[in-house]
Amino acid sequence: MDHTDYAPARAGRRRAASGYPTGDDTRQRLLAAACEVFAQRGFELASTRDIAARAGVKSPALSYYFGDKLGLYLACVDSVTSRIKARLEPVFMRVEEAVSKAAPMSDLIELYCLMQESLLDSFFTPGEGDTVKALTWNTQFAVKEALDLMNQRVTFPLMKAQSAVLGVILGRTQDDLLTRLHVIATNGLFMNFYLSWPCEPLVQLDFHDPANLHMLKGILRQQAEGLLFSLAQRPGAVARTKRKTPRRTIKQRSKK
Question: What is the predicted pLDDT for the residue at 198?
């Protein structure tokens, strides 16, 4: 079966041969249930029968809308990555403009921090963050089609935008190996919070709480700003790296 269309919604509503109603509401219930089950169990261990039961529909509805288990999984990845992409795309556009217009270094560093914060918003949005986070993590070990979709939608565009910023900071091209290695190393600042299960029990904080997420963003921003301004002072960085921006403390940020 060709899954390249990621099982788009079928228009209208009709009564299937089995006698149960089908429509956009049924499809959305299946998709929501599947995202939860795939996030919890991964692709291999998830059962289409359990997904249909959780959605409150009969199993043939799954085949009608998504074809098979892979088609359903790709539709879930499509839904989740579309939401992440929607958060990141406005920042990507600002990065492209800032780099092309030789924006001040402080502006570039601000945009780098905004990209990280947009990811944190995706992973800790109440009601859906855990599913987004777990599903994107599981997709790295799932079928190739799903990983390719996630890379196309999120990973590669994010890497490109981050490399564009760090390339300027380092005085290198965005395709330079050292630029990409620095991007990966810098992303390590928030990866422990993406993999929240080792850190949340340690600090005993729920980052779905807006106040805790705000505090986390402030800490990661301070870390990222310190690292990126330090890199900007290395030999080879462009002249506009000398511009400095007053640092706001976490307490000052919370008053804003």
Answer: 55
